[in-house]
Task: inverse folding
């Protein structure tokens, strides 16, 4: 089996659930308590693709929440093979932050495989992203997932999709 | 400037104890060459020389070892929070880790508080926005409720008025029917009593029928069950017919009745003529009903596919406050004592709206009233703009400019119809009589502005009737229109003498001269 290792960065505004998404993906756990991330938290998880006879170790960089990157944060992103953009479906303005961050990243490092997670879909009563906005996002990001770190809905599928995109790109480049 | 050795030594000791630096040198493939310091806090003390460090130190994955870098607050499995420095040296690179746990703890606490405050603020804004929406919805709901309450009150008031109307308007003719039926059935009643009773019963029954029809019409319109039946019809004929129906009622009250028809009005239109006729009869009936002195005028014009029919009267007028109310069911403005269901204008408005038109009202108290109906009406297919008239329209010069009534006395129905045709179109109200006695009675009773007298009429004849009128104080013009030959003495009784067949335009000009 071929083993690959890729660095992916999780970015988005503060308190959108980035750390919870990673915790759900890596350890299949969730905590209701909000704990703000300072700097960056690094975790790893291996995904296997038996049909490709490949295993991919993802080194996941959970970057502190921000609506705009400064020099300090940009250093964290250096060498990333993919991005997991996370927004909060109960705070539509966090979608604007994601747009802004993606623009900065593309400008600095060029187009890179990415997925968008509109998180907290378990909070049905507070959900504020309508179908029209979602359609716009699908046109812009191509891979959009409505996730819940709390229930685990679509978290694994979203990150697995990113891993596939990275492999496809790596194979293309090879 | 170099620090004294003792100070430099102190700072070095303090720095080393606080940050516990661990440094290692790797080659371009991340293999460990050498390491220095305490690696226990970062889980790297067990790594052997020559091993790929990316397994034990995953934060090195993707790193460019050829660029000097500083990464603050890096937290990885088995690694306390560290500041990470990469210092390249040729094709090798020093990786330096400084323990940042204490600094991280303080900063995390501050950032946590700040983010929680921002979240609270965002939630507060959301709540304020929701509160605003709720207040707005509340105001809207309140307004809707107020409207519904007002509507319910209006319906309730209408119901009350309807019952009051039923009680009064229906009971009066019913009482009359009952009383006169009893009178007719009384064994002591004479044939004359029976005749009069039956006449009264018939009149009351007709009145009741018209009331019931009005109430049923209103209910049908209310339920939205009225369907318009569009067809080609003769608009001029309809106007003449309605005028012919209403003119005698106006004349009975001593009112003039004038009709002005726009020469451009097509003769054939395409609409629901039955409902249009109902509208006109409603408006004219109201005008005649509420006017005591003066007259009623019916005007019809047609412009760019819109028919405008106006009914003007010299009645008491309607105050601005009452103008909206008179279109509501069972309302009669100030004329609450007038007979009827109070539904005429309501039905008119609903029918006109059903036709896609509007009703306008122009009135001031004491200055009469004009109600205009504006309806979009198409011309009949193949309709010519040229009006087809058997009798010509009188010239504008001969048209009356003020409400005037004329009594015609002639026993020749065709002649009466002919004169009526011209006088109606010239704006005069008409009172007709077919004999000299009737002419004398009606003239003295209604005091018309001019009498048009045929000499060869049943009774004492026109000449004697004119003399009697003069003797009884009638001083207004009496014009002879006769086929008889009169001597000078007979002619002197009349203000003017016309021999049949007289040119109608001359007669109209003379009538205008004498009455204006």
Result:
């Amino acid at each position: 089996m071929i083993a690959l290792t890729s660095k992916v960065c999780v970015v988005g505004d503060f308190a959108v659930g980035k750390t919870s998404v990673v915790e759900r993906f890596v350890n299949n756990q969730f905590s209701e308590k909000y704990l703000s991330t300072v700097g960056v938290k690094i975790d790893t998880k291996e995904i296997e693709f038996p049909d490709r006879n490949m295993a991919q170790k993802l080194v996941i960089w959970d970057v502190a929440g921000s609506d705009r990157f400064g020099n300090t944060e940009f250093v964290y992103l250096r060498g990333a093979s993919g991005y997991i953009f996370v927004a909060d479906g109960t705070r539509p303005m966090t979608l604007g932050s994601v747009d802004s961050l993606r623009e900065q990243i593309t400008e600095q490092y060029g187009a890179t495989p990415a997925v968008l997670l509109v998180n907290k879909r378990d909070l049905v009563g507070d959900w504020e992203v309508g179908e029209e906005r979602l359609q716009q996002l699908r046109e812009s990001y191509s891979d959009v997932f409505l996730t819940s770190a709390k229930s685990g809905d679509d978290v694994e599928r979203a990150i697995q999709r990113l891993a596939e995109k990275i492999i496809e790109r790596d194979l293309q480049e090879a | 400037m170099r620090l004294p050795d003792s100070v430099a030594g102190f700072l070095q000791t303090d720095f080393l104890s606080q940050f516990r630096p661990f440094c290692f040198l790797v080659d371009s493939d991340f293999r460990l060459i050498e390491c220095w310091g305490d690696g226990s806090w970062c889980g790297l003390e067990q790594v052997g020389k020559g091993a790929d460090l990316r397994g034990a130190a995953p934060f090195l994955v993707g790193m460019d070892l050829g660029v000097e870098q500083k990464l603050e607050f890096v937290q990885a499995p088995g690694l306390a929070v560290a500041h990470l420095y990469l210092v390249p040296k040729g094709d090798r690179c020093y990786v330096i880790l400084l323990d940042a746990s204490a600094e991280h703890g303080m900063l995390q606490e501050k950032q946590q508080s700040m983010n929680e405050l921002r979240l609270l603020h965002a939630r507060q804004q959301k709540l304020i926005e929701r509160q605003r929406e709720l207040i707005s919805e509340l105001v809207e709901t309140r307004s809707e409720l107020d409207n519904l309450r007002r509507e319910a009150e209006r319906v309730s008031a209408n119901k009350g008025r309807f019952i009051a109307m039923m009680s009064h308007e229906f009971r009066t003719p019913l009482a009359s029917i009952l009383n006169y039926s009893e009178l007719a059935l009384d064994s002591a009643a004479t044939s004359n009593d029976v005749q009069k009773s039956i006449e009264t019963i018939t009149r009351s029954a007709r009145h009741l029928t018209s009331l019931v029809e009005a109430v049923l019409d209103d209910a049908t319109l209310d339920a939205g069950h009225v369907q318009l039946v569009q067809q080609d019809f003769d608009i001029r004929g309809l106007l003449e017919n309605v005028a012919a129906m209403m003119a005698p009622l106006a004349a009975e009250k001593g009112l003039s009745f004038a009709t002005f028809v726009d020469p451009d009005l097509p003769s054939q239109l395409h609409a629901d003529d039955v409902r249009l006729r109902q509208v006109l009869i409603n408006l004219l009936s109201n005008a005649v009903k509420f006017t005591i002195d003066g007259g009623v005028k019916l005007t019809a014009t047609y412009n760019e596919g819109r028919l405008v029919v106006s009914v003007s009267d010299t009645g008491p007028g309607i105050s601005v406050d009452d103008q909206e109310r008179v279109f509501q069911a069972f309302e009669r403005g100030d004329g609450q004592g007038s007979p009827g269901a109070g539904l005429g204008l309501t039905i008119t408005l609903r029918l006109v709206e059903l036709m896609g038109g509007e009703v306008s009202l122009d009135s001031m108290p004491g200055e009469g009233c004009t109600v205009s109906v504006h309806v979009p009406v198409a011309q009949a297919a193949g309709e010519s703009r040229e009006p087809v008239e058997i009798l010509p329209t009188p010239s504008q010069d001969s048209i009356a400019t003020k409400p005037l009534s004329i009594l015609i006395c002639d026993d020749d129905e065709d002649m009466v119809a002919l004169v009526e045709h011209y006088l109606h179109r010239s704006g005069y109200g008409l009172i007709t009589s077919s004999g000299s006695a009737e002419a004398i009675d009606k003239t003295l009773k209604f005091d018309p502005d001019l009498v048009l007298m045929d000499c060869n009429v049943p009774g004492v004849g026109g000449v004697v009737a004119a003399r009697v009128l003069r003797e009884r104080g009638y001083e207004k013009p009496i014009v002879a229109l006769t086929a008889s030959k009169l001597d000078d003495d007979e002619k002197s009784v009349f203000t003017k003498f016309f021999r049949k067949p007289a040119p109608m335009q001359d007669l109209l000009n003379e009538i205008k001269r004498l009455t204006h």
Remarks:
- Residues 122-222 of chain B form a domain with the Helix Hairpins fold (CATH 1.10.287.130).
- Chain B has four domains: 13-99, 122-222, 231-379, 396-515.
- Chain B touches chain A at residues 54, 58-59, 61-64, 67, 69-77, 81, 104, 107-108, 111-112, 115-116, 118-119, 122 (CB under 8 Å).
- The first helix of chain B runs from residue 5 to 19.
